Amino acid sequence: MGRADKLKALRAARAAGSSKDVYMEEEPQDIYDMVDEDDYRAKRRDDLLKDDFVIDDNGEGYVDTGADEWDGKGRHHYYSSEDEQMDQKPKKKQKVKKSAPINNFFKPSASVAMPAKKKVDAKFDDILDDFMAPAQKSKNLFNSSTTKATPLFNSTEKVNNRRDFFSIPKSTSKTPLVRKKIQNTSFDLDDDLSFDINETSFDNHMDDSPTRQRNMKSESPAAPSPAASSFELPTIEKEAPKPEPKKLDDDEEDSEEELVVVKRPRASAKNVNRSVNMNASARAEPKREEPKEELSLTSSPTSSYIPSSDKIDQNLVSDDSKSFKMYWLDYTEVENTLILFGKVLTTDKQLVSAMVQVKNFNRELFFLPRDYRLVDGEATDEAVTPSDVRDEIQPLILEQYGLTSLRTKEETRKYAFEMPGIPKEKDYLKILLPFQPPKNAKKTLPSDLEGETFSHVFGTSANIFETFVLQRNIMGPCWLEIKNANFDDVKNTSHCKLEVSVNNPNFVTPIEKSTPEFNIAPPPLTSCSISVQTMMNQKENRQEVIAVTLATYRNLPQDAPVDENLKPNDLITLTRPIAASFPPGLKAIADKNKLPLRVFNNEKPLLNCLAALVKLADPDVFIGHRLENISLDILLHRMHDLKVPTFSTFGRRQRKQWPDRFGKNNANTSFLVKEIFAGRLLCDISNEMGQSLTTKCQSWDLPEMYDVVCKKKHIPLEINWSNPQYTENANSLFMILKENCVNSLITAEIAFRMQILSLSKQLTNLAGNAWAHTLGGTRAGRNEFILLHEFNRNDYIVPDKETRQQRLAHQQQYQQQSSEDGNDEQVSNNNKKSKYQGGLVFEPEKGLHKNYILVMDFNSLYPSIIQEFNICFTTVDRDLNNIETLPDVPPTGSDQGVLPRLLSTLVNRRREVKKLMKDPTATMIEKAQYDIKQQALKLTANSMYGCLGYVNSRFYAKPLAMLVTNKGREILMDTRQLAESLGLRVVYGDTDSVMIDTNCDDIKDATKIGEDFKIKVNERYRLLEIDIDNVFKRLLLHAKKKYAAMNVSFDKMGQENSVLEVKGLDMKRREYCPLSKEISIYVLEKILSDLDPELALNEIYSYLEDMTSKIKNNEIRADKFKINTKLSKDPSSYPGAKNMPAVQVALRLREQGKVIKAGSVITFVITEGEEGSPAERARALAELLPKTSTLKPDANHYLEKQIFAPVERLLERIEGFDVVRLAKSLGLEHRSKQLSNRSNNTNGGINGILQPLESTISDAERFKLSKHLYLNCKCGSHFKFGGIVSSNDYQMTFNGIQCKKCMNQLNTLNVTSQLEQRIRSFISKYYQGIVICDDSTCGMITKQISVYGKRCLSNGCKGVMRYQYSDKELYNQLLYFDSLFDVEKNKNQSLRPLYESEDVTKPQELIKGQIDALSEQNRDNFNVCKSIVQKYLSDCGRRYVDLGSMFDFMQK
């Protein structure tokens, strides 16, 4: 029937008073071909999902995103082909604004007319529902005749009964326009037509999942709940099949903005409602039956995964009591309410994502009453009670916050922290102040608030999450019982299947361990490993997304180990062309190599699809490498720049607007990224948490972590986007996509091998904080929360958390107090007095030790000291007004403190867990679980001490930290004295361990000595225990914290094994290349072997000669020469960047489009070349790896800087070592000549070796601790004299020194008199013989001498008495005065500077000619002054060595 016939029939029907026949006369088969289910499914898959709409083109020329191309440009009615010409009128095109199909959203074609761009930011629907629709389709929903099509398009009642989160106008009436459209919509859609992402290589899961079949059956057949009916879904799969694809012209490709607007008209249509009734769809019988895949939970009901597409009914999770159980995983704070995200166990034993909004929190404020009322700043005799405080403060709070009532209570609380003037226990006034009052919700009471009746208020800075976990005693992720839930209050505010609100925090209760419900195991996690490939857009100077790989792992256990070889359930890579189009054949290559790939025309549809896949997968955890600061940061910024409306699917909170500060240069990007991702945990294997578990890594690059953690190699593909091969060659582009896919899988494998998820979960449960906090690496935060919980349980008021501004103000105040004005000697005394000493480190006996060395180590020294001596906030009496004073140890028999009791609990629990690990009946999985738990307990206990000494900690207590470290030093000193009393020699000691030379060459004898020594030490203490940690067969000590040793152990067969152990040497630092480390290891293995030292040295020389030949002949791989350097700030911020190789390479990499930030580790190689400095010749390692590269490592640079220097330091204390021969072995002829000349100089070959160290360093370094020479003028001016230099106080003239204040000339006699007086004062100070204890916590000063020699006279102190002013200090002081009048030093300006380099008052320096002239004119005056100093130096015995007294025994 043509259009004219239709109009004629319509007129006749109207005249007859009925139009029913008009709508019933046509059958769908007159317009469409009837096909069966299989044919239709096959055609739809081919058209939509193979990205190949040109027949037999194999995806090589064009791409398609799966959108139908309707000839009518989205008109309201469907039509026959004979009306095509009429439909091209502009009038018809405008109708797309009322019912454009949602599937056009995904179409990168301009074949559909688009509305104006200015309407993009208005109301929009969630396009991600296109990916949800396949799971919920059924024939009953759409199988209706034309006269009964109303339920599909006009569900007015359902829409009006729901809260419209997006504020979309609701359908209110049936209009003729709608009826006219429905006229031709009686097509048969019995087929369950899924949007089959399998065909785009999504791994046969999304529409064939047995869990989806089970979900559809379990849905209630009753009427849809408000939550279910409120979610609007697109109908991309329900449109009639297109007759034939329409080829697009090049100029018809759609803009990125049009993709959003296509969906906007349907969302705002007032007469059409396309919402899909998800519960109704569940009534349909699925077309394909699959075997049900049951998800087994240990000690829990069988549960299954339900894709996050629709909302579930209240009856599935709760009974009439409106209570249910939820396992919370993450949280966020929104408008003074707490949003909890997690999993809910439904009545049919399935797990669904859930969001619970907890409202009406109250901040607990504790007002400290004064002893007596304060009037006009003066205390009266009127005693104050908490009731008086209430009378004063209640009216003020009610008025300030607009409250009508206030809940108050008198409560006895204790206080034991660092604020002075707070009583240990007192009756406080407790006030419950709502977090969300009627007005001034963002204002908080100042912590220093005072009144007539109260002196302080506590609890003003507590946030909602802290308040929640403390009040409800929630210790990390756990099962919660939610009571009195409101299922109708919140709708479409999240991407979770269940959304409820709770009006009182008391309705949320953790399920106790004693209840049977506690045996329900934690729900398994869904994890997405994400890898992002980016490219720098040089024109816009920003990173763009080229490809994203998403690997989804389902049913990961929380507390059990995950198999590192686990394969992902779903894997897909999304990409877009680098230039205008893809190189031909890319899709064919991907299919051939079985790489799941989906292609897009540009970046915006790629990001749209990525958001859809994330919502479909609904992950609980994102796993990635450098996730927060690079990958997710770039993704979100690109979404922000391209105005992708579905960005919020990366979290679980539904958002229409970006955070206010997002995209601004001064915004805290990391914080905003976490805010957007709220509800999904971020597991970055390279952040602080990941680095703490992989301490052997240096750069924490992905290949290095893969090697260290998984013991597997992966050579990364270096990408240079400027190379045109990636736009022209499909194989080259495919290699990039494959690399991105491999990186995603490697990242997940590393995370599973590290067990970072299960370990962080255990740490979180111990600390009682949030899982996201632990994954972020906040160790201080964990300590803070575990102490908050413990002290809160014991009725203590906890310290308020300082804001950043308060912390900076306190630091500035402390610095001002520390830098109060004083004379020069007072400042010196303060500098000598160490404010806070850490662990004791003995001076090592440097050299090679060939006997067996025992390393005796105290187990958990600091936690054990806290328990041993009952050190706690609650037990140690300390002077809070002077935190520098060392407090006394609590008396024996006092009540156990909170901190020792907490540590004791952790230690005992770990001991019990370790016993379970030894149980022979335990399975491997159980043992792995126990191992994770004992690691978490150990990490928590050992880190507790850190909160005492960390300045920014909430529980910072310097006196307690000083007491702990002081007892540690005392214990280590006692251990050394005990060893020496037993005839043993301690060669080194560090904090909690001592190295003892057993003087044995048999390991059994050495071990027996260690066991006997262990018994003698342990019997001195109640809890402290020492044990044999290591046995060294050879030990090479270089300096403090620098040594190498052969560690001996025995295998199961009793065979002795030796392993090289290195600490602190050059080879452990990242700035030395792998080749340098390999050579250093060879050298150490030789000198620590049983070989004779001379023979070992000869083998080392030969080895070095061979390596030198290989290096110069370029026979060693380029990656052996790589140097890693970590940037402490942005590369453009370095002032001396030209001389810094890492910075130069970073700038080059940034120009190539790489993401380089502060904290990035730069890997580079110094290449050879005749021109330029090493920094200018530094290149990224990737530039040397290609076979076509002509760059070569600079052999001479590496031999001298990377090999000679560290090897020389290793061998310098080996008997028979010849540094000249070492240089010759490395081919460093110029260095060998210099060394030879130094050892054979003109003075008999001894001055170059025997000259004192002080003569080889500058005056600025040598005399930095010497006092200045102060001169007085008759005008009263007192200034420092520093020689012929520029000064603000004096100037040198041809006649001597002239005061700038009064222009008085100081004559020579005046200067020499003051000089001699100054010298005598120092000599007098030396002869006073004052001695001082070197232990800063003792600080005893006396002139008395102990009968035990240098031992301190103070009772119980183990310090050593030393002269307060030594002969060395006096000698250097005289030399400094002598240098001031040395004419040659003045000419060369080699004197100690008078001003510091950063001193802003430093005057301009004198010119060279002026200095020379003044020096010669004042030569005579200077010689007179110099003779005064020389007179005293000639009497100083330190400069002479009396050989006669040393060798007079030879005359006898």
TrEMBL record:
Which residue range or ranges hold the Zinc finger DNA-directed DNA polymerase family B alpha domain? 1255-1447
* Residue ranges occupied by any DNA-directed DNA polymerase family B multifunctional domain in the UniProt entry: 770-1214
The family database entries (Gene3D superfamilies) matched by this protein are listed as:
2.40.50.730, 3.30.70.2820, DNA Polymerase alpha, zinc finger, DNA polymerase family B, C-terminal domain, Palm domain of DNA polymerase, Ribonuclease H-like superfamily/Ribonuclease H
* InterPro entries with a match to the protein in the record: DNA-dir_DNA_pol_B, DNA-dir_DNA_pol_B_CS, DNA-dir_DNA_pol_B_exonuc, DNA-dir_DNA_pol_B_multi_dom, DNA/RNA_pol_sf, DNA_pol_a_cat_su_N, DNA_pol_B_thumb, DNA_pol_palm_dom_sf
Provide any one GO MF term from the record. Answer: DNA replication origin binding
User: Tell me, which GO biological process terms does this entry list?
Assistant: DNA repair; lagging strand elongation; leading strand elongation; mitotic DNA replication initiation
Task: Name all DNA polymerase alpha catalytic subunit N-terminal domain ranges.
Answer: 7-71
Any single GO CC term annotated in Swiss-Prot or TrEMBL for this entry? alpha DNA polymerase:primase complex
UniProt enzyme class: transferase
Keyword Cytoplasm found:
no
Enumerate composition-biased segments (Low complexity): 220-230, 296-309, 806-817
**CDD domains linked to this entry:** DNA_polB_alpha_exo, POLBc_alpha
Give the compositionally biased regions (Basic and acidic residues).
Answer: 202-211, 235-249, 284-295
Q: What is its main location?
A: nucleus
The chain positions of domain DNA-directed DNA polymerase family B exonuclease read 456-704
Q: Which reaction does it catalyse?
A: DNA(n) + a 2'-deoxyribonucleoside 5'-triphosphate = DNA(n+1) + diphosphate
Transmembrane portions of the chain: none
What UniProt keywords apply to this chain's record, in alphabetical order? Answer: DNA replication, DNA-binding, DNA-directed DNA polymerase, Metal-binding, Nucleotidyltransferase, Nucleus, Transferase, Zinc, Zinc-finger
Instruction: Report residue spans for region: Disordered.
Output: 73-100, 189-312, 803-838
Q: Where in the cell is it found?
A: Nucleus
Listed Polar residues bias regions: 270-280
Q: Which family does it belong to?
A: Belongs to the DNA polymerase type-B family.
Q: Which PANTHER family match?
A: DNA POLYMERASE ALPHA CATALYTIC SUBUNIT
Output this protein's name. DNA polymerase
Identify the species of origin: Wickerhamomyces ciferrii (strain ATCC 14091 / BCRC 22168 / CBS 111 / JCM 3599 / NBRC 0793 / NRRL Y-1031 F-60-10) (Yeast)
